Amino acid sequence: MNVTVKRKTGAPKAAPGDHGTPAESGPPDLVQLLTPEGERREHPDFSVETTPEELRSIYRDLVLVRRFDAEATSLQRQGELGLWASLLGQEAAQVGSGRAMRPSDYAFPTYREHGVAWCKGVDPLNLLGMFRGVNHGGWDPNEKNFHLYTIVIGSQTLHATGYAMGITKDGSDDAVIAYFGDGASSQGDVSEAFTFASVYNAPVVFFCQNNQWAISEPTEKQTRVPLYQRASGFGFPGVRVDGNDVLAVLAVTRWALERARSGQGPTLVEAFTYRMGAHTTSDDPTRYRIADELESWRLKDPIERVKAYLLREGWADSEFLESVEAESEQLARRVREGVRSMPDPDPSSIFEHVYAEGHALVDEEREGYLAYAASFTDAGTDKGENA
Amino acid sequence: MAAEQFTMVKALNEALRRSLDENPKTLVMGEDVGRLGGVFRVTDGLHKDFGESRVIDTPLAESGIVGTAIGLALRGYRPVVEIQFDGFVYPAFDQIVTQLAKMHARALGQIKLPVTIRIPFAGGIGAVEHHSESHEAYFAHTAGLKVVAPSNPADAYWMLRQSIASDDPVVFLEPKRRYWDKAALDPSGTPDLGLHQARIARPGRDLTLIAYGPMVKLCLEAAAAAAEDGQQLEVVDLRSLSPVDFDTLAESVKRTGRAVVVHEAPVFLGMGAELAARITERCFYSLEAPVLRVGGYFAPYPPSRVEDAFLPDLDRVLDAVDRALAF
């Protein structure tokens, strides 16, 4: 896929006194290449060329990721997961940025980057362990260069920056993407990450998915300036992209990654999108946001616009759409069965991996626990024999 | 190299120098560690000899220092982070306890976090607010962290070498009031003890004084003073606060029958509380007296003009010894 990048430096300049209106439908400086109606649009600085096959592949990713997310939500409702953080509405931001990465690029996610994980080749079942309560992560981050989900808001932006500093020391041309949300932009760690990344010219892309709501707090409670403009204060460019436009996200993220690779340092990408569902399945968004807002964003659906584009160009037919649908059902079935057959960990695993080199107190408590547990096993056996 | 006299600062500097020299993945980072050589000069000369890519002056952001060190460790580096003073570690507390301590477990052991966090800690140097605190209990309370505190130059050297070589995160507490104490050290030798072993600093038969970091010297002075009255006090230098070498402690207390724990941190919920409880559990039938504690009061660390009233001194230690012996 060819991405033509004309922009070389700097972010689009905002008009003097323009503080933006983040929740409006048409914010300023929004990079968009595919309209909600599925029509291609030119942008003076960013463009992307796709073959029909590539666009179909993108569509497939979007649909499968949404289906996976929907299945996980259902599994939570059925009691199979303790909690789920849905990405509904943010598929384009995640698939666009995820596909912009090379396999050797490293992603540091929040707890909602299921679409990025998909693009990095992480088995979706790996993501569900922590939500089912069988582990706190569980996968090997280095296997697919996809770090563990991070619950503490914004912490991972510093890990990403440090990792990127290491890339520079290694003389590698890999790059890092740090994912975070609009709420995280208020955290000190994010500001510190911006500072470190700027000072050390680290090859990191800060990818903020501004989904308009930090649980119940709107973006206006986080900032008085458009988020992407914060970058200029730290000395690197910021770009606001239509987060529901997978092609625009792909183009902008590739540009930002290329900047990182070529030694030009960090970039802030603000993917302007919307969380269609609840913050997590524990949340009730009807208490804090109005139905009209949801409806207006429904019209900007990231998948429908790609589908419309494919059909308009004659690059997809009903057979293709049905095959993707069938594949998504297969994925859902695999996830459903996989979660339900996911074994609970052995309770003694509490004591595993607390330390790499062991710890006397952990060893002592493990022995104590095992002896205590064994005493119940013996009692049960005795009872069974007596019965 | 034959043993020569080292201050603790020089011993720590030598440990960093040799660690940097032996492993190109070892990094030193923190505020003022580069050109200045650290506010206590522990990193003196390292920037000049190893360059700014190995000895890194960081922005003044403690959470950022620890958080980026975590990222560097994930990339295969072994960062040795300096927090300038004890009271400044709190902005990094979140990164230390929620991220650094837990990431190895969260990955089911598939990644390692070999990060050493050096913190000049505790008081007695007449410093201003936030420059004299003893926060070891916070860190020792967190599974996933190892916490150590040397009391003398030789331990400072070897324990820092061992901490940097450890694949686990280590909070390395440096007793700043002992920075200028001198002792013999042969840096090319081998360590006498493992990182987490306690040491009998002075043998005795009547009572065990338990201390670590800055209080070890005080306890040795107390034992010397008590000897003039015919009391033979044993002094155990704990060295490691997580894990604690309870075997060495229990052996000592079973022999002496009495124990007094001395630390600078407030007594309430401090290391002494844990040590007293464990000793009671393990040595109950050997104890002739309850395990007593001497430490700071449950108050903010005071202004320096009255810190002598807050900190354990010779009289308070000997008073506790007398009370324990009177049972």
Descriptive report:
- The complex is a heterodimer of chains A (387) and B (327).
- Chain A is 45% helix and 11% strand.
- Chain A contains 13 helices and ten strands.
- The radius of gyration of chain A is 23 Å and the shape is globular.
- Chain B is of the alpha/beta class and 327 residues long.
- The model of chain B has no long low-confidence stretch (mean pLDDT 97).
- Chain A binds chain B through residues 135-142, 147-148, 150, 152, 155, 157-167, 169-170, 188-189, 192-193, 195-196, 199, 352-357, 359-362, and chain B through 53, 58-59, 61, 63-64, 66-77, 91, 94-95, 98-99, 102-113, 143-144, 146, 166-168, 196, 242-246.
User: Which structural class best describes the helix and strand composition of chain A?
Assistant: alpha/beta
**Rg for CA atoms of chain B:** 19 Å
What's the total helix number of chain A? 13
Largest interface: A-B, 43 and 47 residues
Rg calculated over all Cα atoms of chain A: 23 Å
- Terminal Cα span of chain A: 71 Å
In spatial order, strands of the major sheet of chain A run 2-9-10-6-5-4
Shape estimate of chain B: globular
Task: Give the low-confidence spans of chain B.
Answer: none
Helix/sheet category of chain B = alpha/beta
Query: Which band does the percent of strand residues of chain A land in?
Result: 5-15%
| Average pLDDT reading of chain B | 97
How would you name the oligomeric state of the polypeptide chains in this document?
A: heterodimer
Question: Which H/E pattern describes the elements of chain A?
Answer: EEEHHEHHHHEHEEEHEHEHHHH
Helix content of chain A: 40-55%
Distance between the termini of chain B: 50 Å
Main β-sheet description of chain B: 7 strands, mixed
